[in-house]
Amino acid sequence: xxxxxxxxMSPALxxxxxxxxxxxxxxxxxxxxxxxxxxxxxxxxxxxxxxxNLQALERELGAAPAGIxxxxxxxxxxxxxxxxxxxxxxxxADRMLSLENALSK
Length: 105
Fold this sequence. Notes:
Elements: H1 11-28, H2 49-63, H3 70-82, H4 89-104
Keywords: Bacterial flagellum biogenesis, Cell projection, Cilium, Flagellum, Repressor, Transcription, Transcription regulation
Protein name: Negative regulator of flagellin synthesis
Family: Belongs to the FlgM family.
């Protein structure tokens, strides 16, 4: 069995679509083609103490360099760029072990 698809709706389908759009329009009170307005002002949001503290911390960190040695950062950045920065794996390992020891106490 084959069906020709030509874009024309059957009369039964047109009736269903017309009834559906009329009921949506009457329920919604407006045409569905119109943009949706803003939500009612009844919604509220309250932050927990932790969230408020995190927001305050974020504002503080964003306002100042927070003790970052900008000159040292720039020196390391240029050493990395020109290839003169040397990594000491033994120093890194020693510091990782001391951090692990400090955290396990």
